[in-house]
Protein backbone atom coordinates (compact mmCIF):
# COMPACT_ATOMS: atom_id res chain seq x y z
CA UNK A 1 0.00 0.00 0.00
CA UNK A 2 1.23 3.55 -0.74
CA UNK A 3 0.59 6.91 0.84
CA UNK A 4 -1.88 9.49 -0.41
CA UNK A 5 0.71 12.18 -1.11
CA UNK A 6 1.29 11.04 -4.71
CA UNK A 7 -0.79 10.65 -7.84
CA UNK A 8 -0.10 6.91 -7.77
CA UNK A 9 -2.76 4.48 -6.67
CA UNK A 10 -2.75 3.88 -2.92
CA UNK A 11 -2.83 0.11 -3.63
CA UNK A 12 -0.46 -2.32 -5.31
CA UNK A 13 -1.53 -4.83 -7.96
CA UNK A 14 -2.25 -7.64 -5.52
CA UNK A 15 -4.68 -5.51 -3.51
CA UNK A 16 -6.19 -4.12 -6.72
CA UNK A 17 -6.81 -7.59 -8.11
CA UNK A 18 -8.84 -8.65 -5.10
CA UNK A 19 -10.71 -5.34 -4.99
CA UNK A 20 -11.57 -5.79 -8.67
CA UNK A 21 -12.81 -9.34 -8.14
CA UNK A 22 -14.97 -8.07 -5.27
CA UNK A 23 -16.34 -5.17 -7.33
CA UNK A 24 -15.03 -2.42 -5.04
CA UNK A 25 -11.86 -1.21 -6.76
CA UNK A 26 -13.14 2.22 -7.80
CA UNK A 27 -14.70 2.87 -4.40
CA UNK A 28 -11.59 1.73 -2.53
CA UNK A 29 -9.34 3.84 -4.76
CA UNK A 30 -11.16 6.95 -3.57
CA UNK A 31 -11.44 5.79 0.02
CA UNK A 32 -7.79 4.78 0.19
CA UNK A 33 -6.60 8.20 -0.93
CA UNK A 34 -8.65 9.76 1.85
CA UNK A 35 -7.75 7.41 4.72
CA UNK A 36 -4.10 6.45 4.15
CA UNK A 37 -1.67 9.08 5.41
CA UNK A 38 2.10 9.49 5.34
CA UNK A 39 1.99 10.66 8.97
CA UNK A 40 0.13 9.82 12.17
CA UNK A 41 -2.67 12.18 13.18
CA UNK A 42 -2.59 13.26 16.81
CA UNK A 43 -5.27 10.77 17.88
CA UNK A 44 -3.19 7.89 16.49
CA UNK A 45 -0.05 9.19 18.20
CA UNK A 46 -1.83 9.34 21.57
CA UNK A 47 -3.40 5.93 20.95
CA UNK A 48 -0.05 4.16 20.55
CA UNK A 49 1.35 5.95 23.60
CA UNK A 50 -1.40 4.62 25.90
CA UNK A 51 -1.11 0.95 24.89
CA UNK A 52 0.52 -1.79 27.04
CA UNK A 53 1.39 -3.87 23.97
CA UNK A 54 1.78 -3.66 20.20
CA UNK A 55 1.97 -6.21 17.39
CA UNK A 56 4.91 -5.99 15.00
CA UNK A 57 5.78 -7.58 11.67
CA UNK A 58 9.26 -7.80 10.19
CA UNK A 59 11.65 -9.88 8.09
CA UNK A 60 14.45 -12.16 9.23
CA UNK A 61 17.78 -12.55 7.44
CA UNK A 62 16.14 -14.93 4.93
CA UNK A 63 13.33 -12.42 4.21
CA UNK A 64 10.84 -14.63 6.03
CA UNK A 65 8.09 -12.50 7.63
CA UNK A 66 7.33 -13.05 11.31
CA UNK A 67 4.66 -11.51 13.53
CA UNK A 68 5.57 -10.79 17.14
CA UNK A 69 4.38 -8.87 20.19
CA UNK A 70 6.09 -6.26 22.37
CA UNK A 71 4.78 -4.94 25.67
CA UNK A 72 5.57 -2.45 28.38
CA UNK A 73 4.15 0.05 30.81
CA UNK A 74 1.94 2.45 28.81
CA UNK A 75 4.29 5.07 27.47
CA UNK A 76 6.86 2.55 26.22
CA UNK A 77 5.94 3.95 22.79
CA UNK A 78 6.27 7.70 22.21
CA UNK A 79 5.60 9.82 19.13
CA UNK A 80 7.71 13.00 19.23
CA UNK A 81 6.20 14.21 15.96
CA UNK A 82 3.64 12.96 13.41
CA UNK A 83 6.32 11.27 11.32
CA UNK A 84 7.98 9.16 14.02
CA UNK A 85 7.29 6.54 16.68
CA UNK A 86 9.98 5.68 19.25
CA UNK A 87 9.72 2.28 20.98
CA UNK A 88 11.53 0.96 24.05
CA UNK A 89 11.45 -2.69 23.03
CA UNK A 90 11.53 -5.62 25.45
CA UNK A 91 11.90 -8.72 23.29
CA UNK A 92 10.23 -11.87 24.60
CA UNK A 93 12.35 -15.00 25.03
CA UNK A 94 12.20 -16.86 21.73
CA UNK A 95 11.21 -13.85 19.61
CA UNK A 96 12.46 -14.81 16.11
CA UNK A 97 12.98 -11.14 15.17
CA UNK A 98 14.87 -10.08 18.31
CA UNK A 99 18.24 -9.88 16.55
CA UNK A 100 16.98 -8.74 13.15
CA UNK A 101 16.16 -5.05 13.64
CA UNK A 102 18.54 -2.46 12.24
CA UNK A 103 18.36 0.89 10.51
CA UNK A 104 16.58 0.39 7.19
CA UNK A 105 14.44 -2.56 8.32
CA UNK A 106 10.87 -2.50 7.07
CA UNK A 107 8.33 -2.79 9.87
CA UNK A 108 4.59 -3.11 10.22
CA UNK A 109 2.87 -2.16 13.48
CA UNK A 110 -0.66 -2.79 14.71
CA UNK A 111 -1.92 -1.01 17.79
CA UNK A 112 -5.01 -2.70 19.17
CA UNK A 113 -7.09 -2.00 22.27
CA UNK A 114 -9.30 -5.07 22.74
CA UNK A 115 -11.65 -3.63 25.37
CA UNK A 116 -12.62 -0.70 23.08
CA UNK A 117 -12.17 -2.75 19.87
CA UNK A 118 -10.08 0.05 18.43
CA UNK A 119 -7.10 -0.59 16.16
CA UNK A 120 -4.71 1.51 14.11
CA UNK A 121 -2.01 0.49 11.66
CA UNK A 122 1.37 2.10 11.10
CA UNK A 123 3.87 0.80 8.58
CA UNK A 124 7.31 2.32 8.28
CA UNK A 125 11.09 1.98 8.36
CA UNK A 126 13.46 1.65 11.31
CA UNK A 127 15.75 4.69 11.32
CA UNK A 128 17.68 4.01 14.54
CA UNK A 129 18.22 0.80 16.50
CA UNK A 130 20.18 0.07 19.68
CA UNK A 131 19.92 -2.09 22.79
CA UNK A 132 17.11 0.03 24.23
CA UNK A 133 14.84 -0.02 21.20
CA UNK A 134 14.48 1.91 18.01
CA UNK A 135 12.80 4.75 16.18
CA UNK A 136 10.41 4.20 13.28
CA UNK A 137 9.80 6.62 10.43
CA UNK A 138 6.15 6.60 9.37
CA UNK A 139 5.31 5.64 5.81
CA UNK A 140 1.64 4.69 6.12
CA UNK A 141 -0.89 5.37 8.88
CA UNK A 142 -4.54 4.39 8.84
CA UNK A 143 -7.32 3.10 11.02
CA UNK A 144 -9.10 -0.25 10.77
CA UNK A 145 -12.66 -1.28 11.52
CA UNK A 146 -13.39 -3.04 14.86
CA UNK A 147 -14.88 -6.20 13.33
CA UNK A 148 -13.96 -9.57 14.86
CA UNK A 149 -12.05 -8.08 17.81
CA UNK A 150 -12.98 -9.93 21.01
CA UNK A 151 -13.29 -7.38 23.87
CA UNK A 152 -10.78 -8.04 26.68
CA UNK A 153 -8.99 -5.89 29.22
CA UNK A 154 -5.20 -6.10 28.98
CA UNK A 155 -2.56 -4.84 31.40
CA UNK A 156 1.20 -5.12 31.59
CA UNK A 157 2.48 -7.16 34.56
CA UNK A 158 6.15 -6.29 34.19
CA UNK A 159 7.59 -9.81 34.10
CA UNK A 160 7.22 -13.15 32.39
CA UNK A 161 6.67 -16.35 34.33
CA UNK A 162 9.60 -17.56 36.43
CA UNK A 163 9.21 -20.86 34.56
CA UNK A 164 9.36 -19.35 31.05
CA UNK A 165 10.82 -21.69 28.43
CA UNK A 166 11.14 -21.79 24.63
CA UNK A 167 10.99 -24.83 22.37
CA UNK A 168 11.12 -25.32 18.58
CA UNK A 169 8.00 -26.22 16.62
CA UNK A 170 8.15 -28.28 13.43
CA UNK A 171 6.00 -28.31 10.32
CA UNK A 172 3.61 -30.76 12.00
CA UNK A 173 1.81 -29.00 14.83
CA UNK A 174 1.53 -31.13 17.95
CA UNK A 175 0.73 -30.85 21.64
CA UNK A 176 0.43 -27.33 23.04
CA UNK A 177 1.05 -25.68 19.66
CA UNK A 178 -1.81 -27.60 18.05
CA UNK A 179 -4.13 -26.85 20.97
CA UNK A 180 -3.37 -23.11 20.77
CA UNK A 181 -4.15 -22.93 17.06
CA UNK A 182 -7.25 -25.13 17.22
CA UNK A 183 -8.79 -23.19 20.14
CA UNK A 184 -7.89 -19.67 18.98
CA UNK A 185 -10.42 -16.91 18.42
CA UNK A 186 -7.66 -14.44 17.45
CA UNK A 187 -4.30 -14.47 15.72
CA UNK A 188 -2.03 -12.04 13.90
CA UNK A 189 -0.40 -12.39 10.50
CA UNK A 190 2.65 -10.67 9.01
CA UNK A 191 3.12 -10.45 5.24
CA UNK A 192 5.33 -8.49 2.90
CA UNK A 193 5.67 -7.21 -0.63
CA UNK A 194 8.50 -8.60 -2.78
CA UNK A 195 10.78 -5.56 -2.44
CA UNK A 196 10.05 -4.81 1.23
CA UNK A 197 13.08 -3.32 2.93
CA UNK A 198 15.22 -3.24 -0.21
CA UNK A 199 16.95 -0.05 -1.43
CA UNK A 200 14.84 1.63 -4.06
CA UNK A 201 11.71 -0.29 -3.08
CA UNK A 202 8.47 0.83 -4.62
CA UNK A 203 6.21 3.00 -2.52
CA UNK A 204 3.76 0.12 -2.26
CA UNK A 205 6.31 -2.32 -0.91
CA UNK A 206 6.60 -2.93 2.81
CA UNK A 207 5.78 -5.21 5.73
CA UNK A 208 2.29 -5.45 7.17
CA UNK A 209 0.84 -7.07 10.28
CA UNK A 210 -2.90 -7.56 10.68
CA UNK A 211 -5.51 -9.06 12.99
CA UNK A 212 -7.67 -12.08 12.26
CA UNK A 213 -10.56 -13.00 14.52
CA UNK A 214 -13.60 -15.25 14.63
CA UNK A 215 -15.41 -17.71 16.86
CA UNK A 216 -13.16 -19.99 18.90
CA UNK A 217 -11.98 -22.78 16.62
CA UNK A 218 -12.29 -20.75 13.42
CA UNK A 219 -8.78 -21.82 12.34
CA UNK A 220 -9.03 -25.33 10.90
CA UNK A 221 -5.97 -27.60 11.00
CA UNK A 222 -5.37 -30.43 8.53
CA UNK A 223 -2.38 -32.76 8.64
CA UNK A 224 -0.52 -33.66 5.44
CA UNK A 225 2.69 -35.57 4.79
CA UNK A 226 4.54 -32.25 4.42
CA UNK A 227 3.13 -30.66 7.56
CA UNK A 228 0.09 -28.91 9.02
CA UNK A 229 -2.08 -26.77 6.77
CA UNK A 230 -4.25 -24.09 8.36
CA UNK A 231 -7.45 -22.99 6.65
CA UNK A 232 -8.82 -19.64 7.78
CA UNK A 233 -12.17 -18.25 6.57
CA UNK A 234 -11.81 -14.68 5.33
CA UNK A 235 -14.92 -12.78 6.38
CA UNK A 236 -16.23 -9.54 4.96
CA UNK A 237 -13.99 -6.69 6.09
CA UNK A 238 -12.71 -3.28 5.05
CA UNK A 239 -11.80 -4.36 1.49
CA UNK A 240 -8.25 -3.05 1.74
CA UNK A 241 -6.90 -6.59 1.21
CA UNK A 242 -3.47 -5.65 2.58
CA UNK A 243 -2.58 -9.16 3.75
CA UNK A 244 -4.21 -11.19 0.99
CA UNK A 245 -2.91 -8.79 -1.65
CA UNK A 246 0.61 -9.23 -0.33
CA UNK A 247 0.24 -13.02 -0.39
CA UNK A 248 -0.71 -12.92 -4.07
CA UNK A 249 2.68 -11.30 -4.71
CA UNK A 250 4.83 -13.02 -2.05
CA UNK A 251 3.42 -16.10 -0.29
CA UNK A 252 5.62 -16.27 2.83
CA UNK A 253 3.82 -15.26 6.04
CA UNK A 254 4.35 -15.26 9.78
CA UNK A 255 1.61 -16.07 12.30
CA UNK A 256 1.34 -15.21 15.99
CA UNK A 257 -0.97 -16.99 18.42
CA UNK A 258 -1.24 -16.17 22.13
CA UNK A 259 -2.64 -18.23 24.99
CA UNK A 260 -3.88 -15.38 27.15
CA UNK A 261 -4.53 -17.61 30.17
CA UNK A 262 -1.08 -19.24 30.29
CA UNK A 263 1.02 -16.41 28.88
CA UNK A 264 2.23 -18.63 26.03
CA UNK A 265 3.21 -17.27 22.60
CA UNK A 266 3.39 -19.31 19.39
CA UNK A 267 5.38 -17.94 16.46
CA UNK A 268 4.83 -19.75 13.15
CA UNK A 269 6.28 -19.30 9.66
CA UNK A 270 4.80 -20.73 6.49
CA UNK A 271 3.53 -20.13 3.01
CA UNK A 272 0.10 -18.67 2.36
CA UNK A 273 -2.33 -19.15 -0.48
CA UNK A 274 -5.57 -17.30 -1.23
CA UNK A 275 -8.36 -19.68 -2.26
CA UNK A 276 -10.92 -17.77 -4.32
CA UNK A 277 -13.13 -20.79 -5.09
CA UNK A 278 -16.65 -19.85 -3.89
CA UNK A 279 -17.58 -23.51 -3.44
CA UNK A 280 -14.63 -24.03 -1.09
CA UNK A 281 -15.59 -20.91 0.86
CA UNK A 282 -19.21 -22.05 1.11
CA UNK A 283 -18.13 -24.84 3.47
CA UNK A 284 -17.32 -22.18 6.11
CA UNK A 285 -20.22 -20.07 7.37
CA UNK A 286 -19.77 -16.40 6.51
CA UNK A 287 -16.55 -16.90 4.53
CA UNK A 288 -16.00 -14.77 1.43
CA UNK A 289 -12.83 -16.64 0.48
CA UNK A 290 -10.22 -18.78 2.26
CA UNK A 291 -6.65 -18.28 3.41
CA UNK A 292 -4.54 -21.43 3.59
CA UNK A 293 -1.14 -21.52 5.30
CA UNK A 294 1.28 -24.45 5.08
CA UNK A 295 3.39 -24.40 8.25
CA UNK A 296 7.16 -24.75 7.87
CA UNK A 297 8.65 -23.93 11.27
CA UNK A 298 8.04 -22.10 14.51
CA UNK A 299 8.79 -21.47 18.19
CA UNK A 300 6.65 -21.92 21.28
CA UNK A 301 7.36 -19.65 24.23
CA UNK A 302 5.77 -20.97 27.42
CA UNK A 303 4.94 -18.35 30.05
CA UNK A 304 6.92 -15.65 28.23
CA UNK A 305 4.22 -12.97 27.89
CA UNK A 306 4.17 -10.31 30.66
CA UNK A 307 0.54 -9.39 30.08
CA UNK A 308 -2.61 -10.18 32.04
CA UNK A 309 -5.84 -10.57 30.10
CA UNK A 310 -9.39 -10.44 31.38
CA UNK A 311 -10.88 -13.18 29.23
CA UNK A 312 -14.45 -12.18 30.10
CA UNK A 313 -16.15 -9.99 27.53
CA UNK A 314 -16.16 -6.29 28.36
CA UNK A 315 -19.58 -4.67 28.20
CATH topology assignment:
Pnp Oxidase, Chain A
What is the helix content? 10-25%
Q: For the record, what is the CATH homologous superfamily label?
A: Electron Transport, Fmn-binding Protein, Chain A
Continuous helix count: 6
Protein name: Flavin-nucleotide-binding protein
InterPro entries: Split_barrel_FMN-bd
Account of the 3D structure:
This protein has about 325 residues and is of the alpha+beta class. It has one domain (about 15-305): Pnp Oxidase, Chain A, CATH 2.30.110. Helix content is about 15%, strand content about 40%. It contains six helices and 17 strands. A hairpin with a 4-residue loop joins strand 12 (about 220-225) and strand 13 (about 230-235). Helix 1 (about 15-20) packs across helix 5 (about 240-250). The radius of gyration is 18 Å and the shape is globular. It starts with 12 loop residues before the first helix and ends in a 5-residue tail after the last strand. The model is unreliable at about 1-5 (pLDDT under 50).
Amino acid sequence: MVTTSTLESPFHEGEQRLQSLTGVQETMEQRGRAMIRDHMPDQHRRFFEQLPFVLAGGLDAHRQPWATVWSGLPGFMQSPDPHRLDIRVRHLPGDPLAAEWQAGSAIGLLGIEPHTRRRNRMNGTVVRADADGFDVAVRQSFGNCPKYIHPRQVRWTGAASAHAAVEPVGAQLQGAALRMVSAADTFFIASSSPAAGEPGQGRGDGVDVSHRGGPAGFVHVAETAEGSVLTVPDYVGNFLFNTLGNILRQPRVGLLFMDVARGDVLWLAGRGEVDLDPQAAAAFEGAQRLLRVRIEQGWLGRGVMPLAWDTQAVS
